[in-house]
From TrEMBL:
This is TetR/AcrR family transcriptional regulator. Residues 31-50 bind DNA. It comes from Streptomyces javensis. Keywords: DNA-binding. The keyword Transferase does not apply. Residues 8-68 form the HTH tetR-type domain.
Length: 207
């Protein structure tokens, strides 16, 4: 039986190329015709899939926020259902976010640069999904590091996200270790940040 992933749909192809082009040249620096050319269709042909560039940007940013939350909930539920320790659940959450940080760098750039271009309703939805994702992590982090106050845990989670989401700025393509080595390094750094916060008062670490 084949284990190959299904080929991306035309809509997914359009979104992937739109994300790449928007990240490289800015939202206003890219025309519909250029996005169409990147996927082999005419610019006007894109309107069969999206009403315009604004709709593409909204689907990209709302979509990735939703996927991160859904993936985080799945990892937490699977870990707890299998009887894994909270530290193992946190490891799984970190692994999932590292996959995003390494594989979807254009979306990180888009979020930083273009979030304010979304309509109010879409921007509020992105923020709501992100808050839920943060709180999911906070709950797990406080089980692993029980001496961390809630506010401290939340600050740590935001700091770790900042660390992991720095991947677009880590260097030129090819200047970094391989993907597996980079993922392992990021994982150690994330755990080190949590460990450091928990042990900052000299009380020791639980990991």
């Amino acid at each position: 039986m084949s284990t190959q992933a299904p080929a991306p749909s035309r809509r997914e192809q359009i979104l992937k190329e739109a994300a790449r082009l928007f990240a490289e040249r800015g939202f206003h620096g890219v025309g519909v015709d250029e996005i169409g050319a990147a996927v082999g269709i005419s610019g006007p042909g894109l309107y069969r899939h999206f009403p315009g560039k604004e709709a593409m940007l909204a689907e990209l940013l709302v979509g990735i926020s939703g996927r991160l939350l859904t993936g985080g909930k799945r990892r937490a539920a699977e870990g707890e259902g299998a009887g894994h320790a909270p530290a193992e659940v946190l490891d799984s959450l970190i692994e999932g976010h590292i996959d995003f940080a390494l594989d979807d760098r254009p979306l990180i750039i888009l979020h930083d640069r273009e979030l304010d271009r979304l309509r109010d309703t879409d921007r509020k939805l992105v923020r709501s999904l992100q808050r839920q994702y943060v709180e999911l992590w906070v709950e797990v982090v406080r089980k692993v590091y029980p001496r961390l106050a809630e506010a401290e845990a939340r600050a740590c989670v935001h700091a770790v996200f900042g660390l992991l989401n720095s991947t677009p700025h880590l260097g030129r393509p090819g200047a970094l270790p391989g993907r597996a080595a980079t993922a392992a390094l990021l994982h150690r750094l994330a755990l080190g940040a949590f460990d450091g916060a928990h042990g900052a008062d000299g009380s020791g670490q639980v990991r």
